[in-house]
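A common beginner's mistake is to predict each chain separately and then try to dock the pieces by hand. The better habit, illustrated here, is to supply every component at once so that their relative placement is modeled jointly.
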Amino acid sequence: MRASAVLIRLYPPAIRERWGSDIADEVDRAGPRSWFNTAVGAGKLWLHPSDWPETVAGQTSRVVATALVAVGVVLTLSLRAAGAGPLTANIDHPASSAWLIPILTGVVLAVPSPALSVPVLGRLVAVAARTLAPPGLLFAALCLVANLGSLDSPVCPVRVLLLVCYWVTLCFGGIRLCVLVARAGRVVAMPSGPRLHLALMFVATGLAVAAVQSFAAAFREPSEVGLALMTCGLATSATAVLIAGMDLRRR
Amino acid sequence: MRSNDAQMLVLTVLAQGPQHGYAINTAIEALTGSRLRPGSLYGALARLESHGLIEPSSSDTDERRTVRITDTGRTALRAELEQMARVAQAGLRALGPAPA
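With all components supplied together, the output reads:
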């Protein structure tokens, strides 16, 4: 695969559709010295959704909502990988998960709201079933294997295989969830610009609170490299979502 | 648009007539001696279009998308160039005559 084809995939869909072939031509002619600038240009455009030329009605809202769900999925998988930490709620300290409230509020605001009519709901259920059935089946198969009993203490290669299957299933489920939001956007009404702006503000607030919480924990335990990485990731995500949210207000 | 070189270069080139992305960059190269990198050029084009300073000038079926400057774009470019000309004149006056 050519580098230009990979680089073009980094751009928001509307930009790809409008300028994709021209960008590829420029990258092919300029060679490797243009790769970094092309990738940075893609990143900047993701932060400015109001600059996207809307080639299909509602495209910007659909892509922003999908991107927001993707942020949620990545965050969930990262927290799952990090295990119990300063951001995980427990019964003694329920406030440690307070950051989740604005994030969930934002995600709820960003997801498409179906009109209450039987045909629309029917189409939505069909899309959801078609999209989520493969990861659902995978997950069911994993649960079945885990509860067989014969694999209580698997040997090393089998344990590694099960672990890989588990993470592949989780990642696949996350990707299909994003696909579901993108597909649902073609069936039901996408949230308006102001609502998406509000959604992004809520998510940015939640991420910022989580970043502060994680930073406090990293400050207490400076030897924990994972905590420092998590803080950086959360702070970067919060900033990116905040910039995109502020930009959406302009639309 | 103020102080954004890439956007102003694109508008200056488009003031001569509608062009597609590659031709815009070739004209910029003729004007300045170097081409804009793809990220800068297409970021500028997207931003200018979102601000209504340029618009598509050909049908969507064309392989290459041609864009043209709008009336708002011409007004904005003129204002920017006039301001730059004033700054250039003031700077040259302050420098005095060029040494022989």
